[in-house]
Task: structure prediction
Amino acid sequence: MPADSPALPSERTFGLTMAGACAVAAAVAWWRGRPLPPAFWLVPVVLVLLAVVQPRLLTPFNVAWARLGALLHRVVSPLVLGVVFFGVMTPYALWLRLRGRDALSRRINPNASTYWITRTDTLDPTSLRRQF
Result:
């Protein structure tokens, strides 16, 4: 893993978490009426035993899981941000432009002597005495 990556969880934590996730998945499948093979119920038991007795054996799986997470982050994050920007923000901005809204007051007004905005809702100076 690169030097700037966050620290991995302990192998014991990793093993117990994965055992819990496998047990929950198996329980949900059983509850929905699609029981998994009995060998699948063995996976959480083996993971718990390894996490408690010999957690160092889980190191390669812990590293592989972290690398998979980093890869998914590199792929999914730009996709989600792109969908949010181009699917939500861009249509909203186009809608505002079609309505003629200038939220940032960027239009040039040749009759204006200044673009300074006069504020009437000022703060009470006594409220700024102890900022920290």
The mean pLDDT is 87. The chain has three helices and no strands. The CA atoms of residues 68 and 74 lie 10 Å apart. Residues 59-99 form the longest helix (41 residues).
